[in-house]
Amino acid sequence: MVAIGRHLDFGQVSALFLAGTIAYLALLERVVPYERGWHPDRREWGWYGLYLVLTLATSSVAQFLVTTLVGVLAVRVPMIPLWAEIPTALLVGSLASYVVHRLAHTRPLLWRLHGVHHVPEKVNVANNGVNHVFDVLFEQGIVQLSLALAGFSQEAVFAVGLFVVAQGYFVHVNADIRIGPLNYVFASPEQHRLHHSTDLSEAGHYGSDLSIWDLMFGSFTWRSGRTPVAVGLTDPASFPRTDAVLATFSHPWRRRPAVSSPEAGGPAA
After folding, report:
1. H-state helical runs in 32-116
2. What are phi and psi of 34, to 5 degrees?
3. Cβ neighbours of residue 89 under 8 Å, at least 6 residues apart?
4. What pLDDT tens digit does each residue of the chain (269 aa) get?
5. What is the largest CA-CA distance in the chain?
6. Spatial contact of 103 and 143, defined as CB atoms under 8 Å apart
7. Helix, strand or coil for residue 225?
8. What CA–CA distance (Å, rounded) separates 67 from 73?
9. Which of 152, 212, 106 is closest to 144 using CA atoms?
10. Residue 106 contacts by C-beta under 8 Å, 6 or more apart in sequence?
11. What is d(CA 191, CA 201) in angstroms, rounded to the nearest whole number?
12. Which of 159, 160, 153 has the alpha carbon at shortest distance from 77?
């Protein structure tokens, strides 16, 4: 709200917010770790950092186009005040994100992009950045354009974007954080570890910010004390290793038998 009120540069604010969020959550991982074996070593920090840099650098031009479209499509004078517009935009945006994320697990072509994120056999704040760039662009583009087309202002889209960024890293944090009954409203690390589970019977939780859509559409599997036995891919050979960066980014376009999506009966995340 400060950035909006003072008309600060949204791009600079977003970059500083991202850096601060990662630093704070990385500190929490060391202070109250959930699983010490999931801490990234120096080599993994290097690979994870490279993925983050490549994702940000490669997506910058395309994301600029999306942001420009949002600026054109978003309404100049919203019909409701900003304090009411932001939570409404969050509901709409989280639903769009849920749908895109679930499609990424059920459509083979989208899974070839999204499965890259599920390769690591750990869940921590650092490997939240392990993504295929086109997977990030697809999801972010759909969500932001959905908000603009729904008539939300650029300020509301910005505010929701900051919350989504924070939540995206928060749900990956390798820290022993429990939110109790709030799990039925917000996504949490407790839920997202199950999303990365190799056991498909518990690997729901497609909402990365709100959990209400998982409850509504039957993909909510969390219960108090439930933890995954293992995380990663059910079939690790179906994707390149995280440190094989060039193979990872070219993987979706390689000519070979299609990698089925988890819910379609193929290799799972």
Report:
1. 42-73, 82-106, 108-114
2. -85, -50
3. 147, 150, 152, 156, 157, 159, 160
4. 555 555 555 567 777 888 899 999 999 999 999 999 999 999 999 999 999 888 777 666 656 666 676 667 666 666 788 889 999 999 999 999 999 999 999 999 999 999 999 999 999 999 999 999 899 888 888 887 788 778 888 788 888 888 988 999 999 999 999 999 999 999 999 999 999 999 999 999 999 999 999 999 999 999 999 999 999 999 999 999 999 999 999 988 886 554 455 554 443 43
5. 53
6. no
7. coil
8. 10
9. 152
10. 261, 262, 263, 264
11. 13
12. 153
Cβ(214)–Cβ(204) under 8 Å? yes
Measure the CA–CA gap between 106 and 177, rounded to whole angstroms: 30
User: How far, in Å, CA of 176 to CA of 154, rounded?
Assistant: 35
Task: Report the run of H or E that residue 245 belongs to, with start and end.
Answer: helix 245-250
